[in-house]
Design a protein that fits this description.
Layout lengths: L3 E4 L2 E3 L5 E7 L7 E8 L6 E7 L4 E3 L7 E6 L4 E6 L8 E10 L5 E5 L3 E5 L2
Parallel strand pairs: 2-11
Antiparallel strand pairs: 1-3, 3-8, 4-5, 4-9, 5-6, 7-8, 9-10, 9-11
């Protein structure tokens, strides 16, 4: 069982920056995708950014050019650097890991979430 622990959320003014971090309790092997999702009050959870084990990254249109996702597989971490934050970025941010075993079975894990609030 993989446990994901997020950290780094908080309150920031519009235009500011935050970095959220997610550390997994064990090494993720094989084909995998590590990502960040967010859920604002009254809205559905949405994908913010993801990083694949083959090096590809993917971003929601709303964060392109402002957010950067990165991973350190030796340290079992995935980071989301958020710049030029806007009030619309306010949400609970969740770390997510999807991994496929040798038989092609998908396993998916979620962190507990960390609150990001952008407000003056």
């Amino acid at each position: 069982q993989v446990q994901l622990v997020e950290s780094g959320g908080g309150l920031v003014q519009p235009g500011g920056s935050l970095r959220v971090s997610c550390k997994s309790s064990s090494t993720i092997f094989g084909t995998n995708v590590k990502g960040w999702y967010r859920q604002a009050p009254g809205k559905q959870r949405e994908l913010v950014a993801s990083t694949y084990s083959d090096g590809r990254t993917n971003y929601a249109d709303s964060v392109k050019g402002r957010f950067t996702i990165s991973r350190d597989d030796l340290d079992n971490t995935v980071l989301l650097q958020m710049n030029r934050l806007e009030p619309e970025d306010t949400a609970v941010y969740y770390c997510n890991v999807k991994m496929w075993d040798g038989s092609g079975n998908l396993r998916e894990y979620w962190g507990q979430g960390t609150q990001v609030t952008v407000s003056s």
